[in-house]
Amino acid sequence: MFLELITAVVVGLWVMLPAYLPNSFAAVFGGGKPIDGGRTMKDGRRILGDGKTWRGLFAGILLGFLTGAAEIFALRHGFHFFGIELPGFSATGVPGAFDLSAVIAILSLAIGALLGDMAFSFLKRRLGLQRGQAMPLIDQYDFLIGAFLLTAITSYGWLTMTLDWLTFIVIIIITPILHVGTNIVGYWLGIKNEPW
Ligand code: CTP
Ligand code: MG
Ligand code: K
């Protein structure tokens, strides 16, 4: 049971890395022109706000893609985690296969994460929350919801083949912990404006 749990944590982190990194790197490389162009809606509030920028979006997508590509490259060279077999991203199930299905899965994890983050910023603005104001649970899960949704749409077969229920539940439990942890570090380093 203990080994199963460790395996689920390692596999979960491995598979979600192309979704986790875009989010953190949007905060590092973000800034500049906001995606909503500064526009407001009828409620008088910004569509998305200054926290969602083109640079953050594209830096995130690029970094997510490069992360996934690096993981595939590592698998091709026989990388494993202390004997734990790591899954690939291709629907063929072959670790290290860098085909169209793998590219689609990686991009879906990265783009889905950033779109989820954007969608919930839209919701936060409609609820009257300022940019950066905390919305517990949503701030920790927005990108994960987006990543799972888009990946389920484009790569459902790969997703169900790769994540068993235990790994899926482990991802849901560790994601907010990781998110809060990295944001506190980002805040100390002066990268994040708020520690959430
Ligand atoms: N960021 C960005 N572009 C994105 C996403 C994030 O530039 N598409 C950067 C912004 O500098 C943002 C930071 O990453 O401030 C942290 O992201 P997040 O916490 O999601 O944004 P908030 O500033 O908290 O804004 P919101 O209230 O809309 O979530
Ligand atoms: Mg925030
Ligand atoms: K967010």
UniProtKB/TrEMBL annotation:
Q: Name one GO cellular component term.
A: plasma membrane
Q: Pathway, per Swiss-Prot/TrEMBL?
A: Membrane lipid metabolism; glycerophospholipid metabolism
Reported EC number(s) for this entry are 2.7.7.67
The main location class comes to: membrane
Q: Look at the named UniProt entry and state the broad enzyme category this protein falls under.
A: transferase
Which family is this sequence assigned to?
Answer: Belongs to the CDP-archaeol synthase family.
**Role, per record:** Catalyzes the formation of CDP-2,3-bis-(O-geranylgeranyl)-sn-glycerol (CDP-archaeol) from 2,3-bis-(O-geranylgeranyl)-sn-glycerol 1-phosphate (DGGGP) and CTP. This reaction is the third ether-bond-formation step in the biosynthesis of archaeal membrane lipids.
The protein in question is named CDP-archaeol synthase
- Name the source organism: Methanimicrococcus hongohii
